[in-house]
Amino acid sequence: EALRLPAARAVPAQGAAGYPDLMKEFIRSNPGLESRFKKSITFDNYSVADLVEIFQGMCKSYKLKLAPAAEEVVRQTCAEMKATKGNRFANGRDVRKYFEQCVERQAMRISKQDGKVDLNVLELADIGGSPLALVS
What we know:
This protein is mainly alpha-helical. It is built from 7 helices and 2 strands; from the N terminus they run αααβααβαα. It has helices at 20-28, 31-36, 48-61, 68-85, 92-111, 124-127, 131-135; strands spanning 65-66, 121-122. It has a two-stranded parallel ribbon with strand order 1-2. The chain starts with 19 loop residues before the first helix and ends with a helix.
């Protein structure tokens, strides 16, 4: 007689993401979760250079260019956001919010200008501002 093994249970992949300390608290809040989330993967935070690259990638996907004077302000803003928000910094999400607010400012600037305007450039006026106010 052949050895019969129990049928393998179909186990769907499960995932949850969040800040490490809050995720540990979440998993410990229910004994059933601890048995379902057996592995944990921690990803390193992005460097300032990575954050700037994310911002530039968003510009590219929107077919926007940064004015030369704006590039350094974007780098400074990413560095300030990362340093100021500490463990609560949302990495790419906060950079995306910052980018979206820059695009909103660009639209406001363009709407107030007469004459020919380059719609494909984020100017210094679009980029500036307190990063804390931008992503809060």
